[in-house]
Amino acid sequence: MAQRIFKGIPVSAGLAIGKTHFLDREEGNSMVRVNIIPEQLPQEIERLKRGFELALNDLENIRKKVPKDLKEQAAIIDSHIMILKDAKFQEAACQYLRLKLVNAEWALEYAVKDIEKAFSRIEDEYIRSRVQDVRLVAGRVRSQLFGQPRNVNAVSERMILLAHDLSPADTIELKLDKIMAFATTTGGKTSHAGIIARSLQIPAIVGVEGLDEIQDDQLVVLDGFKGKIIVEPNEEELAGFKELRRRFSDYYSQVRRNCYLPGETIDGFQMQVLANIELFEEVTAVIDNGGEGIGLYRTEYSFLNRNSLPSEDELFEEYRDLASIVYPQRVVFRTLDLGADKIAPLFPHIHELNPALGLRAIRFCQQNLDLFTAQLRAILRAGIMGNVSIMFPMISGLQELQEVKKIYFKVRDELRVQKVKFNPDLPLGIMVELPSAVLIADLLAKEVDFFSIGTNDLIQYSLGIDRTNKYVSYLYQPLHPAVLRSIKYVIDAGHEAGIEVNVCGEIAADPYCIPILMGMQLDSISLNPQAIPGIKRIIRQTTMDECKTLLRQVLNSDDVLQSNRLVRDKIFTRFPEELMFYTSLIEE
Ligand code: PEP
Ligand code: MG
Q1: What kind of fold does domain 1-22+158-257 have according to CATH?
Q2: Contact status, residue 110 vs residue 93, Cβ threshold 8 Å
Q3: What is the pLDDT of residues 114-162, one digit of tens each?
Q4: What is the pTM of this model?
Q5: Cα(522)–Cα(495) distance, rounded to whole angstroms?
Q6: Active-site annotation holds for 192
Q7: Which of 147, 156, 404, 552 sits at 20 to 30 Å (Cα–Cα) from 88?
């Protein structure tokens, strides 16, 4: 019997029961070499030519819709049209078909590789980088070859979406009236796909082995609590899942009733509970779930899936509206964290072997000053609302921070000279998410008004594991002594300097980790809005004493598995419901 249960990493809680649709099955297969026999040659050549023709039609239609003022975008599309019309490119692919007797996709890949080789010898860096256009164009032809340009919502009824990979750009396109849950073959515990799934409140699993064995239109249960997909569930299993779904919905409505109470322990220790958002629209979820402000606005998400950069005024209006909706509570605007897996189509020329260690976040901004300046101006102008803070991601050292501050002050001075209305006194913070920043937290603390510890990246960079890679996901250990000592060191250094310390990584939404963070006397946490009611409930039922005892035990342990067991046993007996209905970063 074919495999019926598929396991992966649960990243967004909940259960979905429905039919499947595999988004990029062919895309995965298209990169596979298939040998053909000489008799198939005319048909395969015809298919390849048709792929070019359809891609050209598609692009010409897009070109017609580009507004007149977007000259740069129009020029890029024109250059892609030229590549598609270039008979030599098409002929080179056909030539490989004849020569190697392979499928059209593979022949196209041969032709692209040849062009890449030729371009790599060009000295002019700009021209060399244009080879990316050829790749993009080839991607368009390839989508046409398997007959379905990528569209995450292309389903006729509500479906469970399966895919090899979903980029942050794909996930923000997801429409809830089309997609009820998703699973991917790639991805790790804190991949951005999971972060978006939690914001959308749809169950999700990543890193699923053998996912493409599941056929389209099969009935499955996707269990976002345990990270399982069950194909063709029997009556008994279905009844069990429906019952669990009902209990989850009861639990959620029950905890939501108390979500406006403060995050305060039985013995009076208060921790502020703020929200993380990726898109403006999520502000309603923050309010509905009792968020006490926005501790992290991941501003880069509104730059993905765009063909042109937003203007300063557009950003200003968005930021001002957001600040006015949550006023008097605060909004922390994190400046662009573009790069790594969050690359906007606007920057196709950036190619890096190790993007997570490359031109990301603040480094990207320092090298794209126009963009950075426009964003800083917009945030400073929105600051007149009185509840705006600004935060720089991925700070690695003191000089870097001082240089970034210099840019910030220069922008501020320019606004002053131009007599534009703005707030000169925004609280200024940094994300502490690199081990180097941890070790000099005492020095950095003198330069800023607050710290926010980004544990998603801090764990990735401290333990040397790609947060999006399922093969090393088992090493992603929040209770690793190195991680806990780092967090504690930063909190203590911040407090020593008299500044506020926040944690905004996914551990802030993890029921197992929260008592440990509280034991460290953290000032605030920031997490996805949907997790706020449950996390507040845990805070409100604990005492600082028990948090400190647990923290001491964990800090004294040199064995992460023993810490995991200890924390699981302790928290599970205290909060069985939360643990049933939340995903955790801590391994069983
Ligand atoms: C983090 O790194 O913990 C964080 C909150 O930022 P992001 O997940 O957007 O990298
Ligand atoms: Mg980060």
Answers
A1: Glucose Oxidase; domain 1 (3.50.30)
A2: yes
A3: 887 888 777 776 676 667 677 777 877 887 786 656 678 888 789 999 9
A4: 0.77
A5: 9
A6: yes
A7: 147
